Amino acid sequence: MSLLPEHLSSIDDFLTNDAFRTWVTERRPEDRVLWQAWLRQHPDKRDLYEQAVATFLVLQGSHFSDSSQQVNAKTEEILNQLTDTPTVVKPLWGWQWGRWVAAAAVIGLLLYWQLGNPLSGRLPVASKQEMQPIRDTSWKIVKNDTGRPLVVLLPDNSSVLLSTGSQVRFHKQNIHTLREVYLQGEGFFEVTKNPARPFIVYTTSLTTKVLGTSFQIRSFTKEPAAYVKVKTGNVSVTPIDSLGQTVLLTKNEQLRFETRTDKVVKRAIIPSKDNSSGIVNQQFSFEFMPVSDVFAQLESSYNMPIQYDRHVLIRCTFTGQLNDVPFLEKIRLICLTIESTYEIADNQVIIHSHGCH
After folding, report:
1. Whole-prediction pTM value?
2. Which domain holds residue 315?
């Protein structure tokens, strides 16, 4: 990633950057890989990047046949017209483009370019009628500063047990070809199986791709190493700075990536007294266990309150293996067994039941 600068913090920075202008103008495959990796390292700058692409396209057009000298001249023209434009990062759809272009034209050009050479599938094919809901449901950021783990429910019914001091960013709607999550910090993921729609987790140092499994990722910026630990299923892990080095992990395997030396170490997960209570090492297998005990374990593991009438469920038991399903799927399967229903309200699970006979 040394080929791309770290200081791009305004539209002007993008437009005066030779690598950016070359990428948008020539769209070479090798540049696409570099910019993909750069965006994964800087997910907070994606909106600004898209604004810069659209700004360039407004004056440059969708066909790039100009010489480098003409590109430089038009870029200078763009900068002159943006002298009064604030450089605060804002979502593309709400940005004020000024008197010289309509927002609809910008959206159309950006869609054309993204679909002509998709960088990351951020913008799906959409009609004008579909554009409004897509605008209103782009990304959601959840930060956990509660001091304890926090369950984050994703739109595809996958879940993340987010450690304190961490955050995730994901699409609000489950309408995209790829299920993408940006993680800063540590999270335990349980992914709904869907072979047609891969689930990808980006961190500052690693990209982890799965179809449906449970695994933990730890990647704090100030820590010298990042980790991926697989509880069930298979995942592929690719270091950001070594795009050709992909490591396959299976059940009970982990990867350690040293961020300073790019060293990758793969080994089996060895439970210890320090981490034996961690959710990666916990087993959610039950045989005729009272439902109250099952709910108690889930409450403890996910730090999610589960409200129910203990007297009503006193005769209910559960038998099953729930290791490889997300949190809500665990709740659904238990309720299905005991002929009950549930709802999520005020960040807690509420069980409705007539009991077991």
Report:
1. 0.60
2. 285-352
